[in-house]
Amino acid sequence: MATCTLACWRCRWLLPLLLGLAIILGIIALSGRGWLESESAPYRHQASLWESCTRWDNDFDWQCQSLMDYSWGRAAAATYLVGFVILVICFALAIIAFSVDILRFNFVRGIGGLLFVVAVFQIICLVIYPVKFTEDIHMRGFNMFSWAYGFGWASTIIVIGCAFFFCCLPNWEDEVLGNIKPAY
Q: pLDDT confidence of 28, banded at 50, 70, 90?
């Protein structure tokens, strides 16, 4: 029976793999048009991080308005983008940290600290957006925050989990590197 302990070479790549998943979820959140949608037919409203689109009665075309005209829209987009860029940098640093033997654990806690900064930026965006959107944008019918908004939260939750693991990982450096004999 094969077991995977912390010293296993495959297990070292779980954290960078999770960061890669957070990046994919962040890309979906940034590009998705499902931050807010009408709850039921007839679908009258659809919004992304960048624009809000409305379809009026007997009209098949969406009338879109940029959310970059609002200061909160620019702030929400900027904070999510800054967090996303830092997340990509952390992903690259994690790949380097787990690839190069000499540098492995010298800056892993720093990556964890940066990931907490990413989480703060993403949470700011994910709180500003629904509060100010419902305040400033006139909506008809029942609307819900939808799948792309959920992908943004999923990315944030993964980042928070990875931040804790990156901060705690140096405490078990010898176990991860296989420098300690396993106890059976």
A: very high
Task: Give the C-alpha distances (Å, rounded to integers) separating 136 from 65, 72, 162.
Answer: 12, 10, 35
Write down the pLDDT at residue 52. Answer: 86
Q: At 55, is the secondary structure helix, strand, or coil?
A: coil
Choice between 108 and 150, residue whose per-residue pLDDT is larger: 150
Burial per residue of 76-88, b for 16 or more beta-carbon CB atoms within 10 angstroms, e otherwise: bbebbebbbebbb
Contact between 153 and 159 under an 8 Å Cβ cutoff? The reply is no
The phi and psi torsions of 47 (rounded to 5 degrees) equal -140, 150
Q: How far from each other are the two terminal CA atoms of the chain, in whole angstroms?
A: 15
Kind and range of the H or E run holding 143: strand 143-145
Other C-beta atoms closer than 10 Å to the C-beta of 163 total: 20
Q: How sure is the predictor about 4, in pLDDT bands with cuts at 50, 70 and 90? A: very low
- Residues 6 or more apart from 38 whose CB is under 8 A from it? 44, 45, 46, 141, 142, 143, 144
